[in-house]
Amino acid sequence: MIVVEKRDGRIVDFNPAKIANAMMKAFKSINKPYSRKEIDTLTQKVVDRINSKNQKVVNVEHIQDIVEEVLGKDHFDVSRKYILYRQKRTNEREKKQKIHRIVKKIVRQTGRENANVGNSPSSKLLQIAEAEGRDFMEKELTSPRVLEAMNDNILHPHDYSWGPIGTTTCCFIPLSKLLEKGFNSGHGYIRTPKRLKTAAQLSCIILQSNQNDQHGGQAYGWYDRDMAPYVKREYEWQLKKIAEVFYKMKSAGQGEPDDREISLDEFSEEEQERMERLAWEYTRKEAYQAMEGVVFNLNTMHSRAGAQVPFTSINIGTDISREGRLIAECLLKAYKKGLGKGEQPIFPNLIFKIKKGINAEPGDPNYDLLQLSIETSSYRLFPNYVFQDCSLNKDFPEDIPTMGCRTRVAWNVNSEKQTCEGRGNLSFTTNNLVGIALKAKNEGLTPKNEENFTELVEKYEIKIPEKYRNITEVKGFFVLLDKYVNITIQQLRERYKYQTSFRKSDFPFLLNGVWMDSEKLTERNNLHSVWKHGTLSVGFIGLAETLKCLVGKHHGEDETADMLGEQIVAFMDKKVREATKKYGLNFSLLATPAEGLAGKFTEKDRIRYGTIEGVTDKDWYTNSFHVPVEYPISIFRKIDIEGKYHKYCTAGSISYIELDSAPANNSEAFYKILKHMMERDMSYVAINFPVDRCKECGYQGVIKEDKCPVCASDQLSRIRRITGYLAELERFNSAKKQEALHRKAHN
Length: 747
Description:
Among the domains are: about 5-85, no CATH class; about 180-250 and about 260-385, no CATH class; about 425-655, Anaerobic Ribonucleotide-triphosphate Reductase Large Chain, CATH 3.20.70. It contains 23 helices and 20 strands.
């Protein structure tokens, strides 16, 4: 008696009826008529072939091979359908097995796609869900053309695994509106706070609540301005209490004091001044404690399925009111002090907005706050700085804040009112510029592509430097880049269409007054009327390695290569602006903050194209338009090179300067660097240096060895910046860790 070995190793009895059923399904799938007798005849041929092998155990694959052969002789069309069906089932099994392998790996060790993810059970469960989400996206929600570009290692849709649930990336939350009108976090209505500490606590709860409706970061663009009214309320409360105490002191021995409202007019001018001074002093103490609470809360409040603390960013610096200035001052001081044992706060990402006439120069009303921010950043890496007067930001009717990672929103083609509040990024997808360059070099240039290149140069006014105009790879690169940016835009539109198919109740906090126009939504509406205010971003990575591949030098090494690099980025900017006009959606160009992606692209390209010096010989590709981290260059030269690229990156960019140690007690040098960045038209910047700390004795400084120089402990914390935010170096993925270790300090 013949038995069958299943794919999972189980042994079952041979059943010819299953072969007959499979053949009938193949006939039905192409609507081809058949008789039962015909099916029985075909089945018997298969059985006879199996028996002729004289094998007692036959595996499933062998049986299916015989079915294909039998059908192929007289029914080729049916055989073809059977083969396709068989291949589909094989692919499904392989994907299922792949998911199982991923789950097994996650259960034992949390992945390092994101350095903010811990090792808790919640973290692992979230990653298991993401693995299944990615599989669903590939099978159900990604068109073949896009999937092919992804499999070719050119396109990478970010937060792809979150796609099935339709979430968006990030939001600049309208804090003032939510505190003033109150909000519902899911278990009841929260009224307007009366005291400053309550307002500060609620500002943290709002960030946490909104994080559960999105997969990216949460930001306040005007935290000093939005919290200022609650400083005023606090001051008035303190003044009222002090007036009551003064009145009781004055009334002592004159009978029982009445319970009426005490007016300041009942006191002398000198007494009023004293009471106001005391009230402000008490308010200042409350403000510091409130801001200290914000720093502590945002490093301990878990969200995102309990797996991570929210990605939070707070912008400050341009409110010149006494109350707003106090918020900025106290937040900076609390952040500088650190956590309970002086540890480095990871969140919030503090961003200081620099604006001429407000804080940029000596004599400006908030210049002292800029100096305080420099002192803080010189010790704690944050705040970063966003320049309001750069060409990218200066014409917007209000401040343009930023997410800590670099994400930016500005002009909105779908609203007369121009604001960043209540808006954010919907999704972004990165192009592997290096992969495109390698492909162009490998494929050569066809006459058709030569013609396409000429058309592109004319249409988009691409100014190729003369020495590179006849290089085949450069021409082929632009033709392929045009193709893949078009595919990226297609993919973003496909994802957008799916995102709009959800309903208001799917995002209970975000779409109840946080996102722009969400108050107008009903449960019957799809979400186009609100998501249209967000941005869809085309990202890019590896400009430096791309130039090495195409012309042999990167933009840090050669001025002409730098000119070509600018034309590449300018071309992508023109493409996304064209898409905005064509589709009526806010497309933008992103200088990608690659974390997990930095090593993935490189590894696959190395397998396909080999190890190429200066291109695939490292574990990572250089972020966006940055000069390679390992390339020796001066501070001001790096700023001069990268500054020109910022104006093209409408979805956000950042430039870093790397120092070998904290620039403590050197505010003047720090300010000089910021001034040069401002003069070179940069939009968003940060200054990096190692933050090492001994967990045993608390020593902080650059620790070059594996042990503390004070107590010899090996329990060390090494904080570094990764894609805009801070994290422990040990939490970096392997590629990003190698990048961090190879960073050269700029002279």
